[in-house]
Amino acid sequence: MASEHTTFFADSSSMESVESESVALMVTSPPYPMIEMWDEGFGESNPAITEALEAEDGWKAFELMHEIFDDIWAECFRVLSASGFACINIGDATRTIGGEFALYTNRARIDMKMIELGFTPLPSIIWRKQSNAPNKFMGSGTLPAGAYVTHEHEHILIYRKGGKRQFKTPQEKQQRRESAIFWEERNAWFSDMWDSLKGTRQNLGDDVNRKRSAAYLYELPFRIIAMYSVKGETVLDPFMGTGSTHAAALALGRNSIGYEIDPSLKKTIETTMANAVGW
C-alpha cells in the first residue's frame, strides 16, 4: 500500500505544517528528563536548566525540562483527530544531586500535563527491561534500610483525545478489517507488561549522534501503530530520532510525519527508510 513519509527538521513545539485534527496516532520516545546524557540537549533549549543543575536544584531542572515538553504535547493534542491516540515511551530517572538520591517521576509529570490538556488516560504498559549487570543493585546491598530497589522498567503511556472511536461507514469498517492483527499478537501486545522487547545497538556513526539519540526499538512503534491506527491513516512522531516510527509506519501501510530538531540525523533517517520493507 502506497504511503507518504515526511520529516521536518524543526522544533515540534510549533508544528505549523500539520493541520489540526489530521493525525490518527502520535507515538514517540522523547529524551528522558534528568537522565544525565540528555542534560546538554535540554540546556541548549533552555539555559536555565543548566543553571539549575549547576546549582544542584534537581527539582527545578526537572520542571524546566518538562516545560519544554508541555508545548509539544499541546501541539499533539491540536493535530490529533477526535478519538485519536497519543502513546509515549518514557522512563523515570534515578539520580543523585546535591548528595540526595531521588527518583524523578517523569511518568507522573507527563500524566498531569496530558490530563490538563484534555487527554483521557488509558491503561498503560510497563516495558520490563531486566538487567543482568552485577552492579544493578543500588545502595548498601545486604544491609537494611540503605539500599534501593532495582529500576528496570519503562512506561508506555496511552491517552485518547475524546471518547471511543466509532467506525461508521462501510469504507471505514473495511479499512479496519484490513488492518486486523493476529490473535497471538493481540494476546501479547494488549498486555500491561511487555518483557519480550530487547534493546539493540543502533548504527549511528559518530559518537555525537550516538550520545544525542535515544535507542528506540523498531518493534515498539510497530506494535503501537498496529494497535491504535488503521491502514491509510497518519502517524506522528514529534521526536523522530533515527526514523524507527517512519519505518514501522511504512511496513504497516500508514503515512507518517516526523519532527527532529537535530539535522545531523538526516542521513541516519534516510538509511533507516532505505532499509525498510518496500522503500
From TrEMBL:
Where in this chain does the record put each DNA methylase N-4/N-6 domain? 23-269
GO MF, any single term = DNA binding
Q: Which reaction does it catalyse?
A: a 2'-deoxycytidine in DNA + S-adenosyl-L-methionine = an N(4)-methyl-2'-deoxycytidine in DNA + S-adenosyl-L-homocysteine + H(+)
Q: What is its EC number?
A: 2.1.1.113
Which Pfam families did the record assign?
Answer: N6_N4_Mtase (PF01555)
> Does Cell wall biogenesis/degradation show up as a keyword for this record?
no
Leader sequence range is none
InterPro entries in alphabetical order: DNA_methylase_N4/N6 (IPR002941), MeTrfase_CN4_CS (IPR017985), RM_Methyltransferase (IPR001091), SAM-dependent_MTases_sf (IPR029063)
Kindly list the biological process annotations in GO that this record carries: DNA restriction-modification system; methylation
What family is this protein classified in?
Answer: Belongs to the N(4)/N(6)-methyltransferase family. N(4) subfamily.
Protein's UniProt name: site-specific DNA-methyltransferase (cytosine-N(4)-specific)
Q: Taxonomy-wise, where does this protein's organism fall, top ranks first?
A: unclassified sequences, metagenomes, ecological metagenomes
